[in-house]
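Late entry, evening session. Most of the bench is empty. Finally got around to the prediction I had been postponing all week. Sequence below, unchanged from the version circulated by S.P.
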Amino acid sequence: MNKLLFFIHTKPLVFIGISSLFLFFLLYLIQYIYISLNLKEICKIIFNDEKHFRLPLEPFNCFFISVLPIVFWRETLHLKYGTSFKKMYGKEFYYPIRKNQLKKLLENFPLFFYVQYVIYLSGIFFLIFGGLAYIIDKNF
């Protein structure tokens, strides 16, 4: 316990960075379990087919489903402001999602969105604090 407190006191940026990385991986595991438990309902809303993906989820399929909250922001920009990502980037990156599908996902699975945003936030914290700790260690 004393070693941990000493580490936190002497290298707080490293501690925050490592804690953020740990939280990142822990939440990805929690998200995988959450997606697995709700896979049929999520597939029914998005693909109109409960059997589109099956358990156990392959890593890419789990990642594909886990980026749906990002798709939420893309589709919100598209529906609200008419932003065309195909025009901006020359191709579509995600499956198109209709407004009613987004509403169903948000109503039925709000935790899915919250967990994904905390995952990205902890990843950003890891990069910021880990990068700062590295820069300070090498230059000062």
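Two things to note before I forget:
The chain has one domain: 12-139.
DSSP finds eight helices and no strands in the chain.
Will write this up properly tomorrow.
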